[in-house]
């Protein structure tokens, strides 16, 4: 189904070219979102110092823990909207849109309050060093005040992705990203506002992106048009959104809790290692966003084709996404590994910080294609409406492995290298479990659909 030039017909025609057309703007959108934080880090590292750099970096894992539950729930909105849109259920589509946007606003307000009240407690819990904690708390509190805008953009963009439109969210992020970069430079270099300046710049940019995506929905003449007078929660659609979204959000949150544990282990090496990890983790984040775009594509394409009962096309979607994900991950991962020292110099000129960053990249970049495969299988399952079991397996495989590694093996082999070997090990173990789960669910779905069509 296609209603305008921005949408992609996911249910008919060739697949790989459409997957690329859908994924590429999504990759660039994800990278631009990362650039919000990257610009913060670069400006702070270059113009404020290594302590401020460590302060901003020390908040990353915590911010992800707080936000990923609600961002995960937006995947439920995406899956439900895609299914209704492909099957032409306009009333259900409209009510899903209004429920999703209302949920985004409520989530954002809850996040803002929690972030402001719990910032210092959470950072202390992670063992943030005394020389950076005050700046970390300041950055985190200001950053979280922008959560309502952040949530509104992400849920609005999830609706647009559900109908095959990834181009306009990219355009909106280009505008807000440029605003973010300019404000960061002005507030830090001209007004000497430090970490507060970069946080304020990020809030303003998120406000702009949320206004643009809401305007896009408001001016649409299709079933996903937004009417502010119709905002509200429809329980039947909220339950379906939660059915897919809450397990996805819990999975993402728990995985980020394991990353927070890992951050605590990095903190034990001191502020130099923290700064190196911050810079390396930012580079690593670009890999994640690129591969995650393919996972998002797999979920959206699977959901629309599930809505119209095209089982063979669903299988082809997963296969083509596997090829695309591995290709992207190997290309970018190898590039990040070989050019790691040069890339790290963008963030800092401190040789010790760069050395620590290279040590982190060595075990997280080249094998990253395994993470792509690990995420694709649950993505396809969520597209079919199955989210609970993939969540449990991901938590066992990824989080369980890292907890055992950090508390069982790491104390006897204290080095950054050994710490980050836990990444590829956890990815491989999780792939094996998810593959078995996918085979069982796929068989059940095919039998169920064939009975309905008989």
Automatic annotation (TrEMBL):
Multidrug efflux pump. This is Probable multidrug resistance protein NorM. InterPro entries: MATE_fam, MATE_MdtK, MdtK-like. The chain crosses the membrane at residues 20-45, 65-85, 97-122, 142-163, 170-191, 197-218, 317-340, 360-377, 389-410, 416-441. It is found in: Cell membrane. It is a multi-pass membrane protein. It comes from the Bacteria. Keywords: Antiport, Cell membrane, Ion transport, Membrane, Transmembrane, Transmembrane helix, Transport. Coiled coil: none annotated. Pfam families: MatE. Belongs to the multi antimicrobial extrusion (MATE) (TC 2.A.66.1) family.
């Amino acid at each position: 189904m296609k209603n305008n030039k921005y949408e992609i017909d996911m249910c008919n025609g060739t697949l790989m070219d459409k997957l690329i057309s859908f994924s590429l703007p999504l990759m660039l959108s994800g990278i631009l979102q990362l650039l919000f934080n990257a610009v913060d880090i670069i400006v702070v590292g270059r113009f404020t110092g290594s302590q401020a750099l460590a302060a901003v970096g020390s908040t990353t894992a915590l911010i992800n823990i707080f936000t990923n539950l609600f961002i995960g729930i937006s995947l439920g909105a995406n899956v439900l909207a895609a299914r209704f849109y492909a099957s032409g259920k306009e009333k259900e589509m409209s009510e899903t849109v209004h429920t999703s946007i209302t949920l985004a606003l409520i989530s954002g307000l809850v996040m803002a309050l929690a972030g402001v009240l719990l910032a210092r407690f959470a950072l202390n819990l992670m063992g943030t060093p005394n020389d950076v904690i005050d700046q970390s708390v300041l950055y985190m509190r200001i950053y979280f005040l922008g959560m309502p805008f952040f949530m509104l953009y992400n849920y609005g963009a999830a609706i647009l992705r559900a109908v095959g439109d990834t181009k306009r969210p990219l355009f909106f992020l280009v505008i807000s990203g440029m605003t973010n970069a300019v404000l960061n430079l002005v507030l830090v270099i001209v007004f000497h506002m430090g970490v507060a300046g970069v946080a304020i710049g990020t809030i303003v940019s998120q406000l702009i992106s949320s206004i643009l995506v809401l305007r896009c929905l408001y001016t649409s003449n299709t079933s996903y048009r937004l009417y502010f007078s119709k905002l509200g929660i429809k329980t039947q659609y909220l339950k379906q959104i939660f059915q897919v979204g809450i397990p996805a959000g819990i999975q993402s949150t728990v995985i980020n809790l394991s990353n927070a544990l890992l951050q605590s282990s990095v903190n034990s090496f001191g502020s130099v290692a923290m700064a190196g990890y911050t810079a390396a983790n930012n580079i690593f984040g670009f890999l994640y966003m690129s591969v995650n775009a393919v996972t998002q594509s797999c979920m959206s394409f699977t959901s629309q084709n599930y809505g119209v009962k095209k089982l063979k096309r669903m299988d082809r979607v997963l296969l083509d996404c596997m090829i695309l994900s591995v290709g992207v991950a190997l290309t970018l991962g190898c590039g990040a590994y070989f050019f790691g020292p040069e890339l790290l110099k963008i963030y800092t000129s401190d040789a010790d910080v760069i050395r620590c960053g290279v040590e982190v990249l060595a075990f997280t970049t080249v094998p990253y294609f395994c993470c792509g495969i690990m995420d694709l299988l649950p993505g396809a399952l969520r597209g079919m409406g199955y989210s609970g079991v993939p969540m449990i397996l991901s938590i066992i495989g990824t989080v369980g492995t890292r907890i055992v590694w950090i508390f069982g093996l790491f104390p006897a082999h204290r080095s950054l290298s050994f710490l980050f070997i836990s990444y590829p090990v956890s990815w491989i173990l999780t792939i094996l479990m998810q593959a078995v789960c996918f085979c069982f669910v796929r068989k059940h779905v095919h039998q169920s659909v064939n009975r309905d069509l008989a």
